[in-house]
């Protein structure tokens, strides 16, 4: 009888300890599930904010043709003429698609909207965000049709927009191929940029900010390079412009071809030398 009572007591002790452990597990499981839920909601909110910045700042916007433009202050009428020029430029692209809608985010004050990533750039004059396809320029002024980079260098706003929107068109047409190019060393410049795509974007924009004579002098080591990024984009443009104008290559043919930047640049440089010699 005593042994039976001890067995029952031990069973009850084990039962209540097990019950306590289960209760503790439920408690911690609730905490884990709530934490996962909060993190999931926070992540979704973050993605939403990154993809749709127009939802929480930018009080001023216009919709014109294929363009949705957001600005940090009232947008003057000069924007329509600027967008007409941009539209004319990007329509030159081999793969222009009239169904693509462009979201452009601009600001007049570079000290605004710097809290979140994947929006306004810290360096350079602008960028097109991959996958999201939002375009941000560092600082812009509609009245003077001017955009600025982080060191104060100026460029025509319409050409800067045409450059960035060309990236959107490339991704729209050649999404997989354009991303795989990052794994092909022949497609990358020494600075890790896709020289074919960047050069084509400059070609569609009407050319780089650096003048041809100035760039060729730097390429021939006749003068020093004062601002490396401008010279790099000049090289990409010169190579792509040569392939299009002299080799009659389309962008897809350029993208598919095994081309080395330095070899194409040397051909382009010699072509320029010969062209000047004939004048």
Could you give the topology of this structure?
Elements: H1 2-51, E1 60-64, E2 67-71, H2 78-90, E3 102-105, E4 126-128, E5 134-137, E6 139-141, E7 146-148, E8 154-156, H3 157-173, H4 175-180, H5 195-204, H6 212-219, H7 228-245, H8 251-256, H9 261-278
Parallel strand pairs: 2-3, 3-5
Antiparallel strand pairs: 1-2, 4-5, 6-7, 7-8
Helix pairs in contact: 2-3, 3-5, 5-7, 7-9
Task: Note down, in words, how this protein is organized.
There is one protein chain. The strands form two sheets. The chain has a five-stranded mixed beta sheet, with helices on one face. The chain has a three-stranded antiparallel beta sheet with strand order 6-7-8. The model has no long low-confidence stretch (mean pLDDT 88). 29% of the residues are buried. With 279 residues, it is of the alpha/beta class. The chain has nine helices and eight strands. The protein is elongated.
Short description:
The chain is of the alpha/beta class. Helix content is 52%, strand content 11%.
Contiguous uncertain segments of 5+ residues: none
How many β strands by DSSP? 8
Helix content estimate = 40-55%
| Lateral arrangement of strands in the main beta sheet | 1-2-3-5-4
Describe the sheet with the most strands. Answer: 5 strands, mixed
User: Structural class of the secondary structure composition?
Assistant: alpha/beta
How many helices does DSSP assign?
Answer: 9
The rough form would be described as: elongated
Please state the CA-atom Rg, rounded to the nearest Å.
28 Å
Distance between the termini: 121 Å
**What is the string of helix and strand elements?**
HEEHEEEEEEHHHHHHH
Strand content: 5-15%
